[in-house]
Write a structure and sequence with these properties.
binds copper (II) ion; single chain; 18% helix; alpha+beta; ten-stranded mixed sheet; 2 helices
Amino acid sequence: MNRRTTTLIAAVALTSGLALTGCSTDSSAGAAGATGTPELKVSGAFMPQPVMDMAGGFLTIKNDSATADKLTSVTSPISDDVQIHETKNQKMQQVKSFDIPANGELKLERGGSHIMFMALKQKPKQGDMVSIELHFEKSGPIKVDLPVEAATHNPKQH
Ligand code: CU
């Protein structure tokens, strides 16, 4: 696609005889931007052992690229209804997506934004692993295993 566009511009420049100064520079910069893909890394993932039939999930997604992305949904075998929530004035509310800024990170942590597993099909216990798949606007899906920690586990307090 980009190659064809570049060829067309080159052809127009040749036949019209106009000196399109800076055009080739602009189009190559545009092509580089268009081919840039987010480079996402997930760390610090865990699920506190659920006490009810719902559970929270926490992790950090780091983006080592100049291209921003969005976390759009989460799926897991333990729930057919996995939501993403933000916390405002100590109340959770469902959101459609979370921004993952270019050269930045998205932090899902206790008291803040989080993954919410509704109507658990089974209740994982401390020491179990819960597999999830993160879905993004631009990046391909990423599979993550969440270790199940104590119900009160909070890495921020260490
Ligand atoms: Cu929630």
